[in-house]
Amino acid sequence: MILHKSPYKLFECVGIELEYMLVNQKTLQPEASTDKLIIKKHGAITDELENGLISWSNELVLHVVELKTTHPVKSLDGISGAFHANVEEINKLLAEDGVMLMPTAMHPFLNPLKDLKLWPHHRNEIYEQYDKIFNCKGHGWGNLQSMHINLPFANDDEFFKLHEAIRILMPLIPALSASSPIYEGNIGPFKDNRLNFYELNQQKIPAITGKVIPESVKNKKEYEEKILEQTYKAIAPFDTDNILQEEWLNSRGAITRFDRNAIEIRIIDLQECPVADIAIAELIIESLKWLIKRFDIIPYFSETELYPIYRTALEEGSNGSIENTSYLKLFGFVPDQEISIRNVWKSILAEVRLSPESEAAILNILTNGNLSERIVTNLNSEKPSIENIIKEYKILADCLKNNRLYTPRQ
Predict the structure, then answer these.
(1) At what angle do helices 341-349 and 274-293 cross, to 10 degrees?
(2) What does the pLDDT look like over 235-280, one tens digit per residue?
(3) Which of 136, 208, 279, 379 could be disulfide-bonded to 358 (CB atoms 3.0-4.6 Å)?
């Protein structure tokens, strides 16, 4: 996501990125053909092509394509439709080869040792270096499709407020957005299995991911000292050619890109359709605005305090409970209460205003569960067969094709 004007002010614009899997229409097996898709559209290999409001680009692996707003947009109005139009165009191009896009944050039966093929074209030296150090043949590298939200800041004061608000909201996000209940053909132990793999994929060098929730820092200088310099130092013995010593090496769940004065939130699982993705983005943005309006009364929370809430959301989903009374008080709950994360989101939703389309999508989540929970409900089995998983994920692919919400079946 490139910010072409610098600096944008706080909430002046937003950039959205969505990652989709390419799969066989019949079997849903992953199809390593993103480069072929780009050639069909562009006539030649490129790592990014503009298609009006939305651009297409490659990712680490060949069965994933990223769609993103070409430039930062002032409003999310109409963005769901723009993403959907590009989904329709891509599906039309892919249909010639019996391939289609599939949503959700993890492929339900991908074999990482057999099915993952790395992008071999432009900038592949970066991917090769990651593979050399961490071995990218794993779910934490090649099976984790997400939405990224990019939000700008104009100066250190705006950075501090935005960064703190994001840190505080981050622990709640997995309970809202989890869409990765199944991998390797089985229901996983957590509601958001993608984020569990995300946390482990660079454990060889723990400083890179930290506690996922970033440390509290007041300005660019402190961020560089406490976060960036520590990651560069930790990877230096493994990255002797300095290929990875850039801001994007930091793999916390929200990373600051001072090269474009923006913070990128990365812990949001991809949903069933753009309507749902944009609804979650809208709720997160409006929640951050609400928190920043109350910034003077927000207490300090260390990443160590926030991390257990984040893990509860990741593991238990919307029904997970929060016990941290200081954190709950921030959202209007009295001490000595144990509150579900679902109810915290309901409390936040009562304080913000969303578009009617987004509010309906959020109410679907808060009423029926996050996408992981809805998928498991509809499968109605602790050990669903591959045939039933394929059937269910074809329904999800149909939701993507029609930009339609996925709901429980009675």
Answers:
(1) 80
(2) 999 888 888 888 878 889 999 999 999 999 999 999 999 999 999 9
(3) 279
